[in-house]
User: Which sequence fits this backbone?
């Protein structure tokens, strides 16, 4: 069983990383992109595995024959990657920094490893105390995974409206990944959802560190990783088996790919396509992914249209190309499987308009945002927001115009996202 679970992780992560290697533009290839490919591939590969399993279930049900399909795909990806490596080898690494900078990086690396070890121990300790995760996992994600795994030809009943309190309209990425882990393991085990949770929790950390190492510097990547690992809420929330941490991974992946697109847009549009795919997987994870995707699209349009309409149109088209397959999948799921959302279906027009026009509700929301921002992280010392704000004031922002456009698009997207919530 343990071997099967390990194989499920290796297959999805390797398949994701190899597919990214095949898509990765030559202009952006360097020795530093290896960790970024692995981190991005771990999450995107898991997302792809969820989509493939859902399509397999539509055709054949939740059977173990799916494993053979993934193994064949992995073999094909390996052969293609080997062929590309011979034709287009990655450039050798640059010489390491010397003197004071290298010593600082060494200290940051050691501190990061200590924080990572502490986070791993804390993650495992919390799982021992709460092996079933939190409430949302009981009533939604793992419940639906059990219905998939045990349902046979009747697995579609997992989306029945007879128990609306379980949110059967939510996209099934997490539930299908737990089912996938159980198929590899050969049976149900609590280690299945734990593996899915650990994959996204620590892949998010790896993605943050490796992306900033490529986009800015290794030191800034390590500092960012330290801040995230020293945010107890993030590690604790990962152990709940909720869909929020996987959703956060795809949010971060979309922004990372858009930042890479801003840097390499003159050579390729592939990063914008990958950003669209990441946003699409966010939509396949939770309903909140729909709002995120709309917000990012609006941010790209508003930030780039007045500056360079040609570039903005190119970026939006590429973003849409990556998004389209997942959008089609989500629309199909919503129309053919999902019942009406239990939270929205009971709201009438007059009730909704009354809430939208009530000043007291806006004041309540603003107070809640302020409270969460000023205490975010639950680290016992103060909000992580203040640490990041001080860091920004100390270092400032990149001065290039392209980066200013990228930051503007991100800020607009986040503002729309907060307003929508």
Assistant:
């Amino acid at each position: 069983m343990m071997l099967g679970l390990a194989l499920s992780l290796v297959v999805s992560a390797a398949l994701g990383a190899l597919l990214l290697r095949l898509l990765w533009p030559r202009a952006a290839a360097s020795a530093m992109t290896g960790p970024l490919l692995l981190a991005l591939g771990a999450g995107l590969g898991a997302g792809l595995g969820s989509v493939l399993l859902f399509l397999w279930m539509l055709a054949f049900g939740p059977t173990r024959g799916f494993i053979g399909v993934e193994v064949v795909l992995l073999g094909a990806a390996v052969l293609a990657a080997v062929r590309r490596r011979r034709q287009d080898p990655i450039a050798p690494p640059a010489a390491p920094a010397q003197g004071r900078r290298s010593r600082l990086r060494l200290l940051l690396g050691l501190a990061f490893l200590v924080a990572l070890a502490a986070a791993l121990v804390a993650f495992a300790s919390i799982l021992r105390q709460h092996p079933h995760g939190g409430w949302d996992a009981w009533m939604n994600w793992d419940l639906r995974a059990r219905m998939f795994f045990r349902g046979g030809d009747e697995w579609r009943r997992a989306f029945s409206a007879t128990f609306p309190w379980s949110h059967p309209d939510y996209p099934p990425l997490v539930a299908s990944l737990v089912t996938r882990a159980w198929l590899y393991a050969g049976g149900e085990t609590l280690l299945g959802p734990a593996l899915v949770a650990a994959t996204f929790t620590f892949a998010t950390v790896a993605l943050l560190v490796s992306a900033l190492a490529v986009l800015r510097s290794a030191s800034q990547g390590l500092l960012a990783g330290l801040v995230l690992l020293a945010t107890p809420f993030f590690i604790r929330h990962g152990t709940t088996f909720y869909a929020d941490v996987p959703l956060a991974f795809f949010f971060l992946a979309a922004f990372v790919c858009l930042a890479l697109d801003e840097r390499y847009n003159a050579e390729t549009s592939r990063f914008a396509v990958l950003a669209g795919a990441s946003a699409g997987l966010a939509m396949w994870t939770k309903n909140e992914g729909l709002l995120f995707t709309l917000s990012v699209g609006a941010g790209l349009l508003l930030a780039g249209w007045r500056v360079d309409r040609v570039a903005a149109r190119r970026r939006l088209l590429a973003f849409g190309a990556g998004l389209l397959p997942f959008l089609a999948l989500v629309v199909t799921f919503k129309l053919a499987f999902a019942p009406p959302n239990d939270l929205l279906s009971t709201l009438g027009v007059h009730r909704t308009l009354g809430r939208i026009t009530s000043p007291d509700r806006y004041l309540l929301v603003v107070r809640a945002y302020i409270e969460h921002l000023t205490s975010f992280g639950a680290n016992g010392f103060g909000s992580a927001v203040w640490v990041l704000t001080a860091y920004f004031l100390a270092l400032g922002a990149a001065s290039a115009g392209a980066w200013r456009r990228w930051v503007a698009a991100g800020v607009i997207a986040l503002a729309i996202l907060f307003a929508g919530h």
User: Anything to note?
Assistant: The mean pLDDT is 89. The chain is about 75% helix and 0% strand.
